[in-house]
Amino acid sequence: HSIGQEVVGLFCMILLTLTALVANIVVMVIILKTPLFRKFIFVCHLCVVNLLSAIFLMPLGIISSSSCFNWVIYSIAECKAVIFLNICFISASILTICIISMERYYYIVHPLRYEVKMTIRLAVAGVVFIWVKSVLITVLALVAWPHGNGATSASRCTIYWSPGAHKKVFVILFSITCFILPTIIILAVYSSIYRVARTASLQQAPVPAQAVAPRHRCDSIASQVTILTARILMLPRLIPDRLLGSNKAILTLILIVGQFLCCWLPFFAFHLPSSVPLATVGGGHGEMVVTWIAYSSFAVNPFFYGLRNRQIREELARLRRSCLNHPLGQELCLSISEASVQENFLQFLQRATCTLETHTSCISPSPRNRLDQTTTSFPTPGQAPEE
């Protein structure tokens, strides 16, 4: 490759690493600093996994991918450590995303069941399950590795170049447990959420009290024209908020699923054929490209699962303004106006689907109820609403 391509590739890899470091640290600080946001357990855990990957895994990926580091030689133990970090962090990241999607499904479709079952103990058990499964999968990859004092170049210390006949079995199990099954779960969960959003958008908006209140009959043409005009002008105002929420929900779901598939499908589509005899897939440059497409997930996850949340963005704006000693009055007004229009779409869907749990709670919230809903919008641990 030319020097220009090497420089551009090295710059992109360093930029992704720095973005992953900064973005994940920012989201983690906001969640841990704000008591209300400490219930975003799984989002915070995803940021921890991404941050660990940016500190340990991505710099090792730069060494393995750039020809500037061809002189780096790994021993067998060092190469095992690199493979361990690679598989473990990839598994933990994908499994965390899968659990976040399942959590959102129960939060939207079964809100009452979510309120009862989603506890701190269950959230901690989910985190423990993620790491136990990730470590077990990684240990399986290193079971039959050769022992001794041999050495290999950094560029060949990857999953594709790993020695041993057990690699074929491992790649199949790794692909099934860490990509195929999570992808099926994510698609099924977000398809259900999409159906909920579509149903909510098709529901007829409630008619306000003024429109149905009994009035004294008046036969004058002027009065009839006034009533008809008021009703015509009122109806378009009843539906935009509901349609806006559903459209934002559908767009967000498409972005989340699309981002997951764009990052991880090339990686597993590259490695899975290596387990098939007579496979003609080559390593080298192709493996480097799909690996860094997968690594880009560590940099974009905090934006899709953290900074897209309106409450987290507002808290970030407050922190920035407090650091710059700016008044908060104008920001508070903007926050209130934004909350009235750009409502959290998960809260919108949960309200729209409350008939799945009870037939008596589907009413338009009064200003008092809206205030109560705002103050208690995060009732349980692990809740991760998205805008």
From TrEMBL:
It is a multi-pass membrane protein. PANTHER family: G PROTEIN-COUPLED RECEPTOR, G-PROTEIN COUPLED RECEPTOR 62. Its main location: membrane. GO terms for molecular function: G protein-coupled receptor activity. Residues 365-380 have a biased composition (Polar residues). Residues 365-387 are annotated as: Disordered. The keyword Protease does not apply. It is found in: Cell membrane. Residues 23-305 form the G-protein coupled receptors family 1 profile domain. Keywords: Cell membrane, G-protein coupled receptor, Membrane, Receptor, Transducer, Transmembrane, Transmembrane helix. This is GPRX protein. It comes from the Eukaryota. GO terms for cellular component: endosome; plasma membrane; receptor complex. SUPFAM superfamilies: Family A G protein-coupled receptor-like. InterPro entries: GPCR_Rhodpsn (IPR000276), GPCR_Rhodpsn_7TM (IPR017452). The chain crosses the membrane at residues 6-31, 40-63, 83-102, 122-145, 169-190, 249-269, 289-307. It comes from Nesospiza acunhae. Belongs to the G-protein coupled receptor 1 family.
